[in-house]
Specification:
Length: about 450
């Protein structure tokens, strides 16, 4: 099987990442994944895993953890979603001593991916014919491929980011050493619930009865109460950033104080005060791995944090004019991004290139960007989930608004109307960010 045929096989499965409306509790089935993994001798049971759920900062926190482990001399498997440009971004192994040559280092080789898909497809088709829980989905098969790959490549640790929620997510088939909950806010409310407590309950579903350690970012009181109660029930130790893990400073010089150690003079290249908090949470997870034999020096922490790359998150890709990419997919993330742009960048006009998935909080996201933008270019990614630009236009009355039928057209238009003193901000859907980043025209 060739790489392209392997991709086509995967894309022939039902892909809920591209659908805005579906019955969440019926569509996602953890048992479906667990029973399939049983048929292939449970590759996940061979892994030492760190599991990350949350609303904001999952990807960058996962990356911080994996890069620190790499700098400490460990082979770190990193599974994230969605991808920006290349599917293989989702499944990576960060090798010790590897010099960065690309934004997404260590992607699964095309030949290996094709071989795994071919080998697993035989078992998948056989399983789909007899499964009482329905056929495996796109994301479930992606997760299975990652678990098998990490097991066969003998990674020292596997860092796994949830897809949607946590309780029913395919990644929750893994029993992890450390569980991480990044900041929770309102997202996918039609699926996860309309209160922070219900959303937290879904995310905290990754905490299971094995007396593991849980690291939580600062949370709203109602969300933290759910996490705390889940930890108590499962006899898991809970550490909360801001309370048990202290942090202060700027991206160019900050410190983190854990219950075990103080880290000074830390630096990161990711932009924004929220990234300092994500770094502190990642250090809590790293410290917790010491109970399982991990040895990570302060120097490894420093170099790991500084070397962490996470494209598409407040990423500067142009200087004159400034061009910034960030996938802010809910109101809270849009608010953080807006504040970061105001605090960290100087510009004359801000040209907003915006596309949002139709199942997101369109009103909340657009409200956060309204005052920031001097001109707005509305567009949509090449996905059925994309919100119609005419729907978005209603939220920018009184603004200088343009409509572009494609992200490529939006990019050309933004460059045409901008001056070198301006800032072009591409945001909203990660699909939009990925298409803009990949466009070489």
């Amino acid at each position: 099987m060739s790489y392209l045929k392997a991709l086509r096989y995967l894309e022939s499965r039902i892909n809920y990442e591209k659908l805005s409306k579906y019955p969440y509790k019926k569509a996602l089935s953890l048992k479906r994944v667990q029973f399939f993994l049983d048929t292939i001798h449970n590759p996940e049971s061979f892994l030492k895993s760190i599991h990350i759920a949350g609303t904001k900062g999952k990807g960058s926190t996962s990356a911080f953890i994996a890069y620190i482990l790499r700098e400490a001399g460990y082979r770190a498997g990193l599974y994230t979603s969605p991808h920006l440009v290349d599917f293989r971004e989702r499944i990576r192994i960060l090798e010790p001593g590897f010099a960065e040559k690309e934004d997404f280092s260590g992607m699964i080789p095309k030949r290996k991916f094709a071989e795994l898909v071919f080998r697993l497809s035989l078992a998948i088709e056989k399983y789909n014919r007899v499964s009482k829980y329905g056929p495996l989905t796109y994301f479930e098969i992606c997760t299975i491929i990652a678990l098998v790959y990490f097991k066969e490549e003998h990674v020292d640790f596997a860092v796994l980011e949830t897809g949607l929620g946590g309780r029913l997510d395919a990644t929750n088939a893994v029993n992890s050493l450390v569980n991480v909950i990044t900041p929770l806010s309102y997202e996918h409310m039609d699926k996860l619930g309309h209160t922070l407590s219900k959303i937290a309950s879904e995310k905290a579903g990754i905490i299971k009865s094995q007396e593991s350690t849980v690291i939580s970012a600062p949370q709203a009181p109602e969300a933290l109460a759910v996490i705390r109660n889940k930890c108590k029930k499962e006899k898991a130790k809970l550490l909360v950033a801001g309370r048990d893990i202290k942090y202060a400073g700027t991206e160019n010089n900050f410190k983190v104080i854990t219950p075990c150690r103080e880290y000074k003079n830390l630096k990161i290249r990711l932009i924004g005060a929220h990234q300092i908090m994500n770094a502190a949470v990642s250090l809590g997870a790293i410290e917790s791995l010491r109970s399982f034999g991990a040895k990570v020096s302060i120097d490894s922490v420093k170099s790991g944090l500084y070397n962490t790359l996470w494209p598409g998150r407040c990423e500067v890709v142009g200087k004159s004019p400034l061009i910034i990419l960030d996938g802010a997919q809910n109101s809270a993330s849009a608010g953080v991004l807006s504040q970061t742009v105001r605090d960290r960048f100087r510009y004359q006009r801000l040209i907003l290139v915006l596309g949002i998935s139709s199942d997101k909080d369109i009103r909340g996201i657009t409200r956060q960007f309204y005052a920031l933008a001097d001109a707005v270019i509305l567009t949509q990614a090449h996905t059925p989930r994309a919100a119609n630009t005419q729907v978005l236009k209603k939220y920018f009355k009184g603004k200088e608004v343009y409509v572009a039928e494609s992200v490529r057209e939006a990019k050309k238009l933004a460059l045409k109307i901008s001056r070198k003193e301006d800032l072009i901000l591409i945001t909203g859907s990660l699909f939009v960010v990925g298409e803009f980043r990949n466009d070489k025209s």
